[in-house]
Design brief:
five-stranded mixed sheet; 22-stranded antiparallel beta barrel; Maltoporin, Chain A; 5 helices
Length: 748
């Protein structure tokens, strides 16, 4: 059998062998360059490069690093990605946004517990940029062992780096526009025990919203990580724990007409007026608060020369809150879950509601304005484990058997607090006057899988099967009512091949059926409301080429996707402003199918040893394949052939990168083509191009106070492009303006 010499990237090797690491050299604490080319596997995939990481400030969310890979569009309303509310991810017609979660996210292979705003946790809360080895993206279908209930259209796996092999302390400070500042420290231990290494890091960051000034909202984040790796004769052991505490003031979506009127304002305010009708849009009262604790351990046991067993237990706890400022108080029949009776915006001198219309305008005698501070509490606790056994039956045949199990408990409640004096500020009574609802969602997931890999010379074939068993239960804690359902999948096949045409060139192809379970919030209605809803399904077919030489790395992928039973939330009536009381409550419905096809291409060409050019292009055509009346009014809201909302048709990237070991710099341009924002294709969002620039200097020192000193300048959106990014139908987030940051890092 001729051995293929198609080279794995440093990141791919680290993923395939957890004990491996793109190690930092002991003489110079610099990370080996990771080339942006996929793993030699059947599925279409790409990995990030160091230059992509350099294009992001250390203040920025790690999500932004993948934006230059083929097929992917990342839109974050905040300039540093520090607002979960406004984050949108799109790939091949699949989305993560406020309404949909159709792409999987894992960190070191650990599922993130979903990516929705309420009960989910994206990777930016679980990983600091300095501790990230890289990101692997599976477009279309993840590995058969990928643990996610959302992975209809692919998986993002964020990989943490391993401890250094020498003792080191790194201290870094970042400052930038919009009052941005960040402090970071990481201590690597050297050898703790026999071949056992560890590190711990801490970071603290702050930035104001880029829109507005003064009291225009802000983000704070305190973050801690620790990791230990032990490589022994018969096993490798890894442990990692992360703690994150974030306070994010949100951005507001705008319509296309509002953007045209003023592309620099999201209609939130930053001066307290004492008028609740205006102050409901006060930026500092639109808040997302989240605390996350995640820990896992991994034991990779070499049971025999041909048998490897891996067990990976994990635990994740999340506590969060979302805040709004309704411009009224609510009268209900009961403090605990009582039904809505009336609402009022003024009280008289005795504190009694004024509902006769005699009060209007500014506060006056007998007319005291009132408002509420509404809190929605999102909590989650889950534990589970991944188990995998790999058996080499002979020199050509390898069998993999595994499972994923998880138990998740998610309480959610909403309470209303009275603002003490709406004329002064939104200081509120900590004791709620109304608890609107208190629910719990319990989900048990069991996913077994099996895959066989057969190597026949230059040809490698894989065939696998997996199935999801998902049990869900909703409980109304006030009434005791429960609703249970299962959201099981069919047996899902995956098949693929990789064929080495030459040592440098290979062709690959795959077929995969994917599935997404019901989202637990769908159970809050009646049994009848979900009786006719079918779980989302997709079929992904890929065919591609990978080419890799010393100077050139290139990928090409053709794909065809059939997405059926797409579920979306549709409001039952148009609300005027924000629907604080859910008066226009709607339903989850299947909105028909989606057909997508396209091409993804990327190439990195080294012109010299220090200078390279990276380019990527994506063409994606996603269309609805069925007429759908979403609101039951007899009018088609989706017509067959309409383009899928928020699906980008053309994406292109061009990046010039220089690195001579002392200086590094990149100039990168990302073009996002026009797309429709709504089902009916009435809202046409214009194309835009964003240019990013970075310049850095790093020098290792023999002797002296420091071992290494580095300074980095990053300017995102260099040309200050104004554009609308992601969002949901009719509600789009303004892209962040030009932002500069500088980071000084010292190693001791």
């Amino acid at each position: 059998m001729r051995t293929r010499v198609f080279r794995l990237t440093a990141l791919a090797a680290a993923i395939l062998t957890p004990s491996a690491m793109a190690a930092e050299t002991e003489s110079e604490n610099v990370t080996e360059e990771v080339i942006a080319v996929g793993q030699p596997i059947a599925q279409a995939n790409n990995v990030t490069s160091d230059s992509m990481k350099d294009q992001q400030s250390s203040l920025s969310s790690v999500l932004g690093t993948v934006d230059n890979l083929p097929g992917i569009s990342i839109s974050e309303g905040d300039t540093f990605g520090s607002d979960d509310w406004s984050t949108t991810i799109s790939m091949r017609g699949y989305s993560i946004n406020l309404n949909e979660q159709q792409l999987g996210i894992t960190v070191d292979g650990i599922p993130n517990g979903g990516s929705n705003y309420g009960g989910g946790t994206k990777a930016n809360r679980l990983l600091d940029a300095e501790n990230m080895q890289g990101i692997e993206v599976y477009q279309g279908a993840g590995a058969i062992s990928s643990a996610s209930l959302d992975a209809l259209g692919g998986v993002f796996n964020f990989v943490s780096n391993d401890p250094m092999r020498e003792q080191n302390i790194r201290v870094a400070m970042t400052n930038g526009d919009y009052n941005a500042r960040r402090y970071f420290v990481r201590a690597d231990s050297a050898e703790l025990l026999n071949n056992t290494y560890g590190y711990v890091s801490l970071s603290n960051s702050y930035n104001s919203r880029w829109i507005g000034e003064g009291s225009n909202g802000y983000t704070t984040r305190q973050h801690m990580e620790a990791k230990v790796v032990s490589e022994q004769t018969d096993m490798n052991i890894t442990g990692r724990i992360v703690w994150d505490n974030s306070h994010e003031d949100n951005y507001n979506g705008v319509s296309i007409n509002q953007f045209k009127a003023n592309p620099d304002w999201d209609r939130l305010t930053w001066q307290w007026t004492g008028d609740p009708a205006l102050d409901q849009n006060y930026a500092e009262a639109w808040s997302t608060l989240r605390k996350n604790l995640m820990a896992y351990a991994e034991v990779e046991f070499f049971a025999a020369d041909n048998v490897t067993l891996t067990v990976k237990p994990y635990y994740h706890w999340m506590k969060g809150r979302g805040d709004w400022l309704p411009p009224y108080l609510v009268e209900t029949t009961d403090k605990f879950g009582g039904s809505y009776v009336d609402r009022y915006t003024y009280v008289d001198d005795a504190g009694e509601p004024v509902t006769d219309g005699s009060c209007s305008g500014a506060a006056s005698a007998g007319c005291m304005p009132v408002s509420s501070y509404r809190h929605t509490h999102y909590d989650k606790e889950r534990f589970g484990f991944l188990a995998d056994g790999e058996i080499a039956l002979n020199d050509t045949n390898t069998l993999e058997i595994g499972l994923w199990y998880e138990d998740s408990h998610r309480p959610e409640s909403r309470d209303w607090h009275e603002v003490i004096d709406a004329r002064v500020y939104h200081y509120y009574d900590f004791n709620p006057y109304w608890i609107q609802y208190r629910n719990t969602f319990d989900t048990t997931t069991f996913m077994p899988y099996i895959q066989d890999t057969l190597s026949l010379g230059d040809l490698e074939l894989t065939l696998g099967l997996k199935k999801y068993f998902v049990e869900m239960e909703y409980t109304n804690e006030f009434t005791g009512d429960t609703l249970s359902t299962d959201s099981d999948s069919d047996v899902l096949p995956q098949a693929g091949f990789v064929y080495g045409l030459t040592p440098e060139l290979e062709v690959h192809g795959s077929y995969a059926e994917n599935f997404a379970a019901f989202r637990d919030e769908m159970l809050t209605g009646s049994e009848e409301s979900i009786r006719d809803v079918e779980p989302e399904k997709s079929t992904n077919i890929d065919l591609g080429l990978r080419y890799n030489t010393q100077d050139t790395q290139a990928t090409l992928a053709l794909y065809n996707v059939e997405f059926s039973n797409r579920i979306t939330y549709v409001s039952g009536a148009a609300a005027e402003g924000i629907d604080y009381l859910n008066e226009a409550s709607g339903a989850y419905i299947n909105v028909g199918g989606i057909d997508s096809y396209g091409v993804e291409a990327s190439v990195r060409q080294y012109i010299t040893n220090n200078f390279d050019i990276y380019a990527a292009y994506t063409y994606n055509n996603s269309e609805y394949n069925k007429d759908v009346d979403t609101d039951g009014d007899g009018t088609l809201d989706i017509e067959e052939g309409n383009k899928v909302a928020a699906s980008v048709e053309n994406l292109a990237v061009l990046s010039l990168n220089y690195n001579n070991g002392l200086y590094h710099s990149s100039l990168s341009t990302k073009y996002t083509g026009g797309r429709y924002g709504d089902f009916a294709n009435n809202d046409r969002l214009y194309s835009y191009a964003v240019v990013d620039f970075n310049l850095g200097y790093a020098k290792s020192v023999d002797g002296g106070l420091f071992k290494r000193a580095a300074i980095d300048l990053v300017i995102n959106n260099l040309l200050d492009e104004r554009y609308l990014g992601g969002g949901v139908e009719g509600y789009y987030f303004i892209g962040a303006g030009r932002t500069a940051t500088a980071t000084l890092a010292l190693d001791f």
